[in-house]
Write a structure and sequence with these properties.
Elements: H1 2-23, H2 28-34, E1 38-46, E2 55-66, E3 71-80, E4 83-94, E5 99-106, E6 113-119, E7 125-134, E8 138-150, E9 153-162, E10 167-177
Antiparallel strand pairs: 1-2, 1-10, 2-3, 3-4, 4-5, 5-6, 6-7, 7-8, 8-9, 9-10
Length: 179
């Protein structure tokens, strides 16, 4: 009886490992992300204060696939409101949940933002959300929309919704591949 239970446990472990291996194989969504590898120029328009003109800035973004093609690491550098700014986004597609997942960190805070979302049928638009208790504005929802316009252009938009409020567009970034 003990031998049969032990064999069943081994079989279960083997099945588990097969499933983990199956889910670990990068798929078509990972190939879409891999096409974004390279050096990019950014132009950002940020709506910082209501009633005031938006702030514009430029920067760079280096994008590379990491961990054997599982994730795209995006490293941004530029300026934000007159200050040097850097940020890192790591985005991937979770084959198990069938959702895009990403984390964002930057030099202007100590927070780690966790985003989850979906992609369009054609794979050219990724929409994700994150909730965060902002230290100044309170609980809020962040929504990001990444549009792959073509092989050399991306549009990135960030929206926020304060608790009980309406959604507002915080910023838009045009990302163009360096030639």
């Amino acid at each position: 009886m003990k031998a049969a239970k032990k064999q069943e446990a081994v079989m279960d472990m083997e099945k588990m490992m097969e499933e983990y291996k199956r889910l670990a194989v990068p798929g078509k969504q990972h190939k879409v992300l891999a096409r974004l590898e390279g050096s990019w120029i950014t132009k950002t328009v940020a709506n910082v204060e209501p009633g005031k003109p938006p702030m514009e800035s430029t920067g760079t973004c280096e994008q590379k696939m990491i961990l054997d093609g599982h994730y795209l690491q995006q490293e941004y550098k530029g300026d934000m409101m007159g200050e040097t700014f850097s940020g890192i986004n790591v985005i991937g597609f979770d084959n198990h949940t069938k959702r895009y997942v990403s984390t964002w960190i930057d030099s202007m805070s100590t927070a780690i933002y966790y985003f989850r979302g979906s992609g369009s049928a054609d794979g050219r638009t990724i929409t994700q959300e994150s909730s965060y208790d902002d230290p100044v504005r309170g609980p809020m929802l962040w929504r990001s929309v990444t549009r792959i316009v073509d092989d050399d252009t991306m549009k990135y938009e960030m929206f926020t919704t304060l608790k009980g409020g309406k959604e507002t567009k915080e910023m838009e970034m045009t990302v163009t591949r360096k030639k």
